[in-house]
Amino acid sequence: MQYLKLITIVITRRNRVNMEKLGKRLKTAREKAGLSQRQLANESGVSQGMISQIEAGHKEGGIRTLEKLAEALGMRFEDLYRGEAPTGDADLLKDKLVYEIAQTVKPMTVREKKEVLRFSKFVGRRHAN
Question: 55, CA 20 to 30 Å: which among 30, 44, 70, 115?
Fold first, then answer.
């Protein structure tokens, strides 16, 4: 019986730590995007209360909730959930023009960034043909 109780305590603590880390990652990503909780709620369709609960480490949210939040923040679900670093092209920002583009879009809203991305893809397709 003691063993079962100990396992339960360990699992509970591990889940709490994971929820706290997820909450910190969400808050950091939201702040980097320059969004308030209310703005992220509007962008993602997730309630401000749920965002607050996740950021505080009180709730984890379901997969679909986290997918909506990641999409609204312009990031991958894996990066938000597990805290994985983005892969590939890490030295891309060493290119001066790419760096300038990144600096230009940095203060934009997520919606504006998505519009810039759509335009960039459109131009890229024209040059690929």
Answer: 115
